[in-house]
């Protein structure tokens, strides 16, 4: 991550959290598809992250895996919109928030 020199690792439980969280399950239509496709460009989203802010962990269920709280970062990414013949017609740009847990061992997405 260029702006902060933070090294964010992808935790072993990231795939399940990314696809099975309450937020993800609430998504419908185009946003659900965008989030599913965004999984392929997580590295780009981390590189684009800005506006880091810290939040205390207030949930007992995360006392071990976010023992030192959470960082949230703003990020953006672009997804191609394909037309006939699979030609890229344009790109749609999206904003997102990366939620990163902080532990004594480092930062984990």
Can you describe this structure?
- The chain is α+β, with helices and mostly antiparallel strands.
- The chain has one domain.
- Helix content is 26%, strand content 37%.
- The chain has helices spanning 14-20, 22-26, 29-38, 42-47, and strands at 8-9, 50-55, 70-82, 88-103, 106-108.
- A five-stranded mixed sheet has the order 1-5-4-3-2.
- A hairpin with a 5-residue loop joins strand 3 and strand 4.
- The two termini are 13 Å apart.
Number of helices: 4
Strand content: 35-45%
Q: Going across the major beta sheet, what is the strand order?
A: 1-5-4-3-2
- The number of strands is 5
Largest sheet: 5 strands, mixed
Shape: globular
Into which percent range does the helicity of residues fall? 25-40%
How many domains make up the coordinates?
A: 1
- Mean pLDDT, as a whole number? 87
Q: Termini, distance in Å?
A: 13 Å
Low-confidence stretches: none
* CA radius of gyration: 15 Å
List keywords for this structure.
5-stranded mixed β-sheet, 4 helices, globular, alpha+beta, 109 residues, single chain, 26% helix
Layout of secondary structure:
Layout: E1 8-9, H1 14-20, H2 22-26, H3 29-38, H4 42-47, E2 50-55, E3 70-82, E4 88-103, E5 106-108
Parallel strand pairs: 1-5
Antiparallel strand pairs: 2-3, 3-4, 4-5
């Amino acid at each position: 991550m260029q702006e902060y020199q933070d090294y964010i690792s992808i935790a072993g439980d990231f795939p399940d959290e990314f696809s099975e969280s309450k937020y993800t399950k609430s998504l419908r239509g185009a946003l659900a598809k965008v989030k599913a496709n965004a999984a392929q460009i997580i590295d780009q989203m981390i590189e684009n992250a800005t506006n880091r802010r810290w939040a205390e962990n207030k949930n007992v269920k995360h006392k071990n895996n976010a023992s030192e709280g959470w960082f949230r970062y703003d990020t953006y990414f672009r997804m191609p919109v394909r037309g006939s013949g699979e030609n890229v017609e344009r790109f749609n740009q999206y904003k997102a928030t990366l939620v990163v847990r902080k532990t004594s061992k480092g930062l984990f997405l």
